[in-house]
Amino acid sequence: MKFHCQCDHVISDSTTDIPYKAYSWPDQSRDAVFAAIERLMERPVPADILQQDALVWPIVIPKGQRTMYQCPECGRLHIKSDDGHYWCFKPEFDGTPKTLFQASRSTEKAP
Ligand SMILES: [Zn+2]
After folding, report:
1. How far is the CA of 100 from the centre of ligand 1 (A)?
2. Where in the chain are the domains?
3. Alpha-carbon distance 22 to 34, whole Å?
4. Residues within 5 Å of ion ligand 1 by Cβ?
5. Separation CA 75–CA 93 (nearest Å)
6. CA angle, 65 as apex, 61 and 68 as ends, to 5°?
7. Taking the model in full, what pTM does it have?
8. Per-residue pLDDT averaged across 60-84, rounded?
9. What does the alpha-carbon distance between residue 84 and residue 91 come to, in Å, rounded to a whole number?
10. What is the 64 CA–ligand 1 centroid distance (Å)?
């Protein structure tokens, strides 16, 4: 999947570990996520059937989850709504980080 940002940069989603992609879920889904985690801790599910367990879905795909991309060129946020439309938000200030979705990666090695 690819789309053009308003700055004309092409945002591509064809692999995993994308540094400009993130997911969000509403606070209203938080209780369901933590309840599902607690249930799994009490009664673990074998890994081979984990994806078939409906009680795991609140963790895998929380209700109201959104896919988001941040353009690495201009910093605009693109948030996908339930109908598949991407809503675009432009940073208001110069100097807004363009790497908000990058995971921190430590270069230090464990002792
Ligand atoms: Zn852009």
Report:
1. 14
2. 1-25+66-105, 26-64
3. 20
4. 5, 7, 9, 71, 73-74, 76
5. 10
6. 120
7. 0.78
8. 92
9. 22
10. 25
Which one-letter DSSP state was computed for residue 93?
S
Provide φ and ψ at 10, rounded to 5°.
-90, 120
Distance 33 CA to ligand 1 centre (A): 32
How far, in Å, from the CA of 17 to the mean position of ligand 1? 20
pLDDT of residue 90: 97
pLDDT in tens, 45-58: 777 777 777 777 77
Alpha helix stretches (DSSP H) within 52-111: 57-60
Rounded to 5 degrees, what angle do the CA atoms 62, 96, 100 make?
30
Q: How far is the CA of 18 from the centre of ligand 1 (A)?
A: 16
Beta strands in 38-98, from DSSP E residues, in sequence order:
66-70, 77-80, 86-89
* C-alpha 86 – ligand 1 centre gap (Å): 13
CA of 105 to the centre of ligand 1 (A): 24
The 3-state DSSP class for residue 32 equals helix
CA of 80 to the centre of ligand 1 (A): 16
